[in-house]
TrEMBL record:
<dbReference type="GO" id="GO:0043565">
    <property type="term" value="F:sequence-specific DNA binding"/>
</dbReference>
<dbReference type="InterPro" id="IPR058163">
    <property type="entry name" value="LysR-type_TF_proteobact-type"/>
</dbReference>
<dbReference type="Pfam" id="PF00126">
    <property type="entry name" value="HTH_1"/>
</dbReference>
<protein>
    <submittedName>
        <fullName>LysR family transcriptional regulator</fullName>
    </submittedName>
</protein>
<comment type="similarity">
    <text>Belongs to the LysR transcriptional regulatory family.</text>
</comment>
<dbReference type="Pfam" id="PF03466">
    <property type="entry name" value="LysR_substrate"/>
</dbReference>
<dbReference type="InterPro" id="IPR000847">
    <property type="entry name" value="LysR_HTH_N"/>
</dbReference>
<dbReference type="InterPro" id="IPR036390">
    <property type="entry name" value="WH_DNA-bd_sf"/>
</dbReference>
<keyword id="KW-0010">Activator</keyword>
<keyword id="KW-0805">Transcription regulation</keyword>
<feature type="domain" description="HTH lysR-type">
    <location>
        <begin position="5"/>
        <end position="62"/>
    </location>
</feature>
<dbReference type="GO" id="GO:0003700">
    <property type="term" value="F:DNA-binding transcription factor activity"/>
</dbReference>
<dbReference type="GO" id="GO:0009891">
    <property type="term" value="P:positive regulation of biosynthetic process"/>
</dbReference>
<dbReference type="GO" id="GO:0006351">
    <property type="term" value="P:DNA-templated transcription"/>
</dbReference>
<keyword id="KW-0804">Transcription</keyword>
<keyword id="KW-0238">DNA-binding</keyword>
<dbReference type="InterPro" id="IPR036388">
    <property type="entry name" value="WH-like_DNA-bd_sf"/>
</dbReference>
Length: 291
């Protein structure tokens, strides 16, 4: 008979090891932080070694934890593939996702090939809210916001990481553009401007800049395309413009990066949480959002 600790303890350890955070692991597993802490303590007692230590930089794996983590990850991958091979006939269904248009276009589409290869029998339908007569048709929602939703299982996927960028044509002799010389580009959310410029200016200590001036747009994609055309300066989540930063079509004005306060959340209604297609999408999304 195999001498193994509870599978749940090992699953909790894998999640904490990936996130380096008890709180993030608790969100991913949809349990309390206290429950995560207890599972890790029980596993450490079982093994007789410490798996994590707290440092000024945050939670870190011990030598024993670092040795265990990759083997355990591979083991869970094998188990997942084995279960998938048995469950495939039950996965021939459509997964309906409600998502912000720019996130779907710029982030999800860049990763979909991996999902489709991994789960070929799950068909995705990615839509905006106004294309559905009833939200009951939606299996899960990606939501841009500040806090978790109270009416469903809600977990933070990733926080925004804002940087100020401009087209290369607005740089002069390698020097970044003057913030007073070009329009500031603003994004509207629920009819109001997001205070990304105010937050960035405060973080950089820039004073005397009128954050209210400039142009405003209803979607982030419009802001990005205007910045690409040299129509102004923009503060944008760098995760949405990875391609433009890589090919140099947008350049950072400074290296300053402002985290949050907005992020992308995964919301799943209670009656959808038990669906295999939702569970597999959630696990995949957590993995690719926090590599």
């Amino acid at each position: 008979m195999r001498q193994l600790p509870s599978l749940n303890m090992l699953r909790v350890f894998e999640e904490v090891a990936r996130h380096r955070s008890f709180s993030q692991a608790a969100l991913g597993l949809n349990v309390t932080q206290g429950a995560v802490s207890r599972q890790i303590k029980q596993l450490e007692d079982y093994l007789g070694v410490a798996l994590f230590i707290r440092t000024p930089r945050g939670l870190e794996l011990t030598e024993s934890g670092a040795a265990l983590s990759p083997h355990l990850g591979q083991a869970f991958d094998h188990i997942e593939r084995a279960l998938q091979s048995v469950c495939v006939p039950n996965l021939r269904q459509r997964l309906r996702i409600l998502a912000p248009p720019t996130w779907a276009t710029r982030w999800l589409s860049a990763h979909l090939r991996e999902f489709c290869l991994r789960y070929p029998d799950i068909s995705l339908s990615v839509t905006q809210q106004n294309s559905h007569d009833s939200l009951a048709e939606i299996d899960c929602q990606i939501r841009f916001g500040l806090t978790a939703a109270s009416h469903c299982a809600s977990q933070l996927l990733v926080m925004e990481r804002h940087i100020a960028v401009a087209s290369p044509e607005l740089f002069s002799a390698g020097q970044p553009p003057n913030l007073r010389q070009f329009p500031l580009l603003h994004i509207l959310h629920d009819g109001k401007r997001l205070k990304v410029w105010e937050n960035w200016l405060a973080a950089t200590g820039r004073e005397g800049i009128d954050a209210d001036q400039g142009l405003e747009f209803s979607t982030l994609d419009q802001v990005i395309h205007t910045a690409l055309a040299g129509g102004g300066l923009a503060v944008i989540d760098r995760q949405m413009i990875e391609r433009e930063l890589a090919n140099g079509s947008l350049l950072p004005i400074t290296p300053v990066e402002v985290i949050g306060p907005y992020g992308y959340w995964l919301d799943v209604a209670g009656d959808k949480q038990g669906l295999s297609k939702v569970r597999l999408f959630t696990q995949w999304l957590n993995r690719v959002s926090n590599p």
